[in-house]
């Protein structure tokens, strides 16, 4: 019975205490909130189903060489270009989690 009474009275108590701001000639400026964006996540993609090792890749923020599983790194929304030495494989395309040979050629 006491729990039901307490749970029923809790919203009334909270409403009565709401606002606060406590006495004393403070300003009536609205409170500001700070929105914190999540950090840019570095995503991992894979070139081909069986992995293609040794391809160079470059995005706006990442670059490197694919490993034995064909892994490469990128951030969402970036474009990626694969190459072997100085020779580009296809054209720059949107980086995605899975890249196949046919998807980089025009």
Question: Could you describe the 3D structure shown?
Answer:
By secondary structure, the protein is of the alpha+beta class. The protein has a domain at 42-101. Helix content is 15%, strand content 31%. The chain is built from one helix and seven strands; from the N terminus they run αβββββββ. The chain has one helix at 2-17, and strands at 42-47, 56-58, 63-65, 71-75, 79-84, 87-94, 98-99. The protein has a four-stranded antiparallel β-sheet with strand order 3-2-5-6, with no helix packed on it. A three-stranded mixed β-sheet has the order 4-1-7, with no helix packed on it. The longest helix has 16 residues, at 2-17. It is elongated and about 65 Å long. The chain starts with a helix and ends in a 7-residue tail after the last strand. Residues 1-7 have low confidence and may be disordered.
Question: Characteristics of this structure?
Answer:
106 residues, alpha+beta, three-stranded mixed beta sheet, 7 strands, disordered N terminus
Content of β-strand: 25-35%
Q: Kindly, what is the distance between the CA atoms of the first and last residues, rounded to a whole number of angstroms?
A: 73 Å
Rg on CA atoms, Å: 28 Å
Number of helices: 1
Shape: elongated
Compressed to H and E, one letter per element, the order equals: HEEEEEEE
- Unreliable spans: 1-7
**Side-by-side strand order of the widest sheet:** 3-2-5-6
């Amino acid at each position: 019975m006491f729990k039901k009474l307490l749970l029923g009275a809790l919203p009334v108590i909270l409403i009565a205490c709401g606002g606060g701001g406590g006495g004393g000639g403070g300003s009536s400026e609205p409170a500001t909130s700070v929105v914190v964006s999540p950090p840019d996540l570095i995503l991992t993609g894979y070139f081909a189903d069986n992995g293609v090792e040794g391809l160079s890749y470059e995005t706006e923020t990442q670059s490197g060489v694919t490993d034995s599983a064909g892994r490469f790194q990128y951030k969402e929304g970036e474009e990626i270009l694969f190459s072997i030495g100085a020779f580009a494989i296809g054209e720059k395309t949107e980086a995605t989690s899975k890249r196949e040979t046919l998807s980089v050629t025009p």
